[in-house]
Amino acid sequence: MRSNSKHTAKELEMYIQFYINDGISYTKLCEKHGLLLAQSKFHDKVLRYQEHGLAGIQSSITNNRYSEGFKHSVVMEHLEEGASIKGLARKYNIPSDSTVRNWIIKYTKGKSLRTYSPKPEVYTMKGRKTTHEEKVKIVKDYLSEGLSYTEAAKKHDVSYNNIYSWVQMYKKHGPDGLVDGRGRRKLNTIQTDEEKLKTEIAALKARNEYLETENAALKKLKAVERELMLRK
N or C: which end of the chain has fewer CB within 10 A? Predict the structure, then answer.
């Protein structure tokens, strides 16, 4: 089986063994041994191999099928616990990050997975009319209290999809992003310094969680590589 179009799984396993056991650097693997993967891609393969063995770097010749319950648990791990998309794909040996990303998009748009929520009414309820002031208050409550989307939806008696959409718009445009957008021109938002700070903090929080996870994994790999080189 091929792990990708450039190397078979067995070939890739050989490169990973060279890297982990023999302390051969990524650069030398490329220059002297013919490795063709980009560094980030190779590191991801190393982590998958360490997590799942050969199965972690093999590609299935048939499409993988996942239950709705499994999809729901993965999506909730991202939304409620802040797990990164790349990290989830690696943890559960899902071949493509985009698969996880698509599950999240469908879920937040209410297209699937809703019946697997412990509180399905939060996802299936019809959206109620809310004023601009109420939307801002709900979003600020979500940000300040550290609520999950599910908790905020239940607390304020609005749909999950509304909460998710309002938070994303607020992060991008501040309070003006929550004005009814029908027939409105592109936003030209002016925020106060305090609102800008809150918006930036909220937007960076999710990004930082992702980067911290990825950086920790890369630091671990680099530490292993340095230790192996010192042994030589």
Answer: C
What residue spans define the domains of the chain? 1-62, 68-116, 120-210
Side-chain-side CA neighbours of residue 181 (13 Å)? 12
Note whether 18 and 12 are within 8 A (CB): no
CB 138 within 8 A of CB 156: yes
How remote is the C-alpha of 207 from its chain's centroid?
9
pLDDT in tens, 111-161: 555 444 444 444 445 556 888 889 888 888 887 777 777 788 888 888 777
* CA–CA dist 48, 148 (Å, integer): 29
Burial 176-187 (b: 16+ CB within 10 A, else e): bbbeeeeeeeee
CA distance 7 to 4: 6
Residues 163-186 have a mean pLDDT of 69
DSSP 177-188: GGS--TTPPPP-
> What pLDDT, on a 0 to 100 scale, did the predictor assign at position 116?
45
Helix 149-156 to helix 68-81 angle (10° resolution) is: 90
Query: Angle, to 10 degrees, between the axis of helix 26-33 and the axis of helix 39-52?
Result: 110
- The reported pLDDT for the residue numbered 136 is 87
